[in-house]
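User: Here's a structure from my thesis project, written as structure tokens. My advisor, Dr. K., wants to see whether a designed sequence matches the one we expressed. Can you design one independently, without my sequence as a hint?
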């Protein structure tokens, strides 16, 4: 008992007893350093050793903010530019004009004999399908239909070409939804086979019809009305877009070269002209070409039409054959 009393007396006399008093820190601690970051070493800092572990010192700017924000911004910018490049690559097939002959060289076409039917189905991820038809110079008569489920044809086209080699058929069909298939029937005789090809688009972007309407002038064609537009000889092909406000679309598109001389005729039916607009590229070789659009529906079903040149050859100059300006 006397021994403990002496210890307590000594502790009371000693003012710096660590056991009963909070001592101030004897060393100044260094600034905090991030031992782990979800962003990684964005600033490319050199690692520092601290207590046997590796840490990265966060560099700061003159305003006292971390330069990690600038690095993240640069990373987002690079990612955005890469996405833009990918989008531009996926849209190059529509933004860069291509001739139908060039497309036939890239795809794998099939032969459809006279009176026979060929169908092609595809996945739900396909946004639209481009259909190409041609012959070896003979006339072409065919029916192109979009099938969606049993006994359901939301879009139909009847095609006539006077010369399937000089003016091949080239159209784009929108395929929203699932269970889509394209049917091509050669309605000509057995002596008139045709060559058909398909090209699918799974980019997820807007189609050529919507892009055409947003970048060019268009007009409304009332039911039963006729809209004609001539083109000079320098125009090698023309793009035509037909669309409605969601109602059915019934129309006939003709390529004329002379008075009532039909070189190409297409009769179109679309169940929903807004969801499935009609887009076609018509080759127009020679001079005196006129595109005529007829709305075969009644006055309650107007449509929107846009027609403009697709390929232009600047080397061809329209010169009159006589001083009076007569062109034969």
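Assistant: Designed independently from the structure alone:
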């Amino acid at each position: 008992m006397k021994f403990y009393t002496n210890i307590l007396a000594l502790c009371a006399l000693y003012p710096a007893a660590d056991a009963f008093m909070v001592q101030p820190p004897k060393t100044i601690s260094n600034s905090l350093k991030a031992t782990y970051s979800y962003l990684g070493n964005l600033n490319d800092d050199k690692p520092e050793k601290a207590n046997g572990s590796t840490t990265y010192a966060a560099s700061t700017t003159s305003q006292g903010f971390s330069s990690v924000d600038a690095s993240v911004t640069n990373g987002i910018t690079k990612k955005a530019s890469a996405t833009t490049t990918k989008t531009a690559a996926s849209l190059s097939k529509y933004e860069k004009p291509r001739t139908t002959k060039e497309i036939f060289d890239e795809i794998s076409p099939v032969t459809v004999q006279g009176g026979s039917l060929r169908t092609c189905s595809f996945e739900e991820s396909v946004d639209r399908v481009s259909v190409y038809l041609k012959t070896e110079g003979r006339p072409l008569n065919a029916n192109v239909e979009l099938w969606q489920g049993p006994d359901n044809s939301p879009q139909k086209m009847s095609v006539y070409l006077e010369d399937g080699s000089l003016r091949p058929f080239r159209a784009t069909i929108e395929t929203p939804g699932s269970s889509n298939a394209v049917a091509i029937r050669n309605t000509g005789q057995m002596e008139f086979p045709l060559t058909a090809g398909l090209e699918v688009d799974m980019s997820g972007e807007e189609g050529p019809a919507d892009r055409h309407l947003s970048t060019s002038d268009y007009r409304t064609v009332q039911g039963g009305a006729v809209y004609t537009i001539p083109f000079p000889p320098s125009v090698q092909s023309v793009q035509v877009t037909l669309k409605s406000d969601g109602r059915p679309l019934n129309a006939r598109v003709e390529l004329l070269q002379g008075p009532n001389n039909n070189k190409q005729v297409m009769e179109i039916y679309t169940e929903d002209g807004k969801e499935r607009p009609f887009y076609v590229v018509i080759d127009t070789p020679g001079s005196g070409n006129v595109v005529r659009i007829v709305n075969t529906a009644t006055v309650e079903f107007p449509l929107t039409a846009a027609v403009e040149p697709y390929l232009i050859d600047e080397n061809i100059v329209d010169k009159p054959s006589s001083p009076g300006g007569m062109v034969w």
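When you compare it with your expressed construct, this may help: The chain has five helices and 18 strands.
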